[in-house]
Amino acid sequence: MGGFKLKEGMKLILEKTVKAEETAAKVASGALDVFSTPMLIAFMENTAFNLAQKELEDGDTTVGISVNIKHLKANLVGDLLKCEALLTKIDGKKLFFNVKVTYNDEIVGDGEHIRYIVNEKKFIEKIRG
Q1: Which of 5, 86, 93, 112 could disulfide-link to 11, CB 3.0 to 4.6 Å?
Q2: Which residues, including other chains, have CB under 8 Å from residue 63's CB and lie 6 or more apart?
């Protein structure tokens, strides 16, 4: 389990269009039909996950262990969002990311996310006991 191909400074940008099932009203995090904070966080985590995953050895993956973000702007269904994940620090198996989501160059959300490298099989076996 190395992740030796991972290097600080790597980044990945993903795009997504806000879907009706991702609104605050639909995921029960609020009453409005706007992009929900849980879905914003999921988009950020997914971008960081994808950045790390393509560089890991077979059988390894990452799990999210910390999210510290601000949701700064509301978005409607159909809006096209971009998320940038930047790998800022590697501390053993711990990966630190800056994550930022934008809409038409306006910041929708930004913050920090930490993921941890694990072996998929061992991780699940440990949970099952």
Answers
A1: 86
A2: 115, 116, 118, 123
